[in-house]
From TrEMBL:
Function: Specifically methylates the cytosine at position 967 (m5C967) of 16S rRNA.
Residue ranges of domain SAM-dependent MTase RsmB/NOP-type in the record: 167-439
InterPro entries reported for this sequence: MeTrfase_RsmB-F_NOP2_cat (IPR049560), MeTrfase_RsmB-F_NOP2_dom (IPR001678), NusB-like_sf (IPR035926), RCMT (IPR023267), rRNA_ssu_MeTfrase_B (IPR004573), RsmB-like_ferredoxin (IPR054728), RsmB/NOL1/NOP2-like_CS (IPR018314), SAM-dependent_MTases_sf (IPR029063)
Catalytic reaction list: cytidine(967) in 16S rRNA + S-adenosyl-L-methionine = 5-methylcytidine(967) in 16S rRNA + S-adenosyl-L-homocysteine + H(+)
Organism lineage: Bacteria, Pseudomonadati, Pseudomonadota, Betaproteobacteria, Burkholderiales
Name of the protein in question: 16S rRNA (cytosine(967)-C(5))-methyltransferase
Amino acid sequence: MNSPIPLSDQLAAAARTLLAVEQGRSLTDVLAKTPARLRPGVQALAFHALRHWGEAGVLIGLLAERPPEGAARALLGLALTLLLPQAVGGNVSYAAHTVVDQSVQALQQLKLPAGLAGFVNACLRRYLREQDELLLKAGEDLQARWNHPFWWVQRVRRDHPQHWQAILATNNRPAPMVLRVNRRRVGRDDYLQTLRAQGLLAEPVGRDGIALAQAVAVDRLPGWEQGHCSVQDLAAQLAAPLLLDGAQLPAGARVLDACAAPGGKTAHLLECAELDLLALDVDPQRCERIRDNLRRLGLQAEVKPADAAETDRWWDGRAFDAILLDAPCTASGIVRRHPDVRWLRRPGDIAQLAAQQLRLLEALWPTLGAGGRLLYCTCSVFKAEGEQQVRDFLQRHPDAQLLPSPGHLMPGEALSGGSDGADNLVGMDGFFYALLLKRPAG
């Protein structure tokens, strides 16, 4: 039997993880290199801390005129998030005295100067004594109140004046685990029964989706290795039906998935129809992930490592019947799943990524045949990466017509016309969808 992992070990590892995020590294990448025995606990701590990181930063400034730097600051911030009232009863809930004691021990494991232990101990105990006053003062700070960078709050408020508070609040709640059933391997009703027989509570959502009441490791999912399902948010599951429904594509229609990795939408397209599909991604390693996913699901497509915008390097000149462009973006709509995104992004990233999206749209439009459809999507709530991008594209291209499309979907929004009331409980990631028809010349 494995002995319990001391909280101090997990705190020390989580502090290193948070410091790496502050230095610009992706939380996903850092967690992948965390020892397996520590990873679940460290992930839970890091997710919790990053959802309260704005408040933690302001509290540190109120508690110390000269705050520590590096791992000591990260550990102090982490400990403060565990002492917040919101942490009581949560997934990482600990008694206050345990947090203080184990944080001091974690400092020793981080091999920091001995004097820092007394400093951190004093800060945490002062917070506990003056909690109400400190929280009230911290709440006057916009970044602390919403736990997003100030510029991010301002941008969402400008883009969505009626919904900005709901968007920010939803970002700080965990996202549900949603599956997409591979209809080529198993029926959704049959798979639901299998899940329930194994004690996994689940409800149908959308067309092919199942929402789990509680997230589980994929190796616990029945039929995972046999390709019976994939993990995919409900918003992402809209891409395939949006592109295919009503298109009247013949069997073997030529379809491009332009920025395909890791292959979730690629697979869904192939599960829904018989297609001659080309999947591109600029990163060869990510192309291997696409191939691995397709193999597990029993699906076939041509996968090429290529920059989709450099059409002279990969396009054979034959027009596509349909194109899916899931363009690189700020990922501002999936903060529930990636709480580090808001702290990694910078204001200038929006314009830089919007320029990449424009480059891809302009390069791919000539490869689409007359009467064909291009579905442009991003997992962003920023209008520069969605509504504004498409409005400008339509002005430049008289042969482009906007078909009925969802537009911007807000984080936590229910699927309109879904299969049942469970959709309202799940809510989707933030996304943008625009379906464009290419009119015949003349």
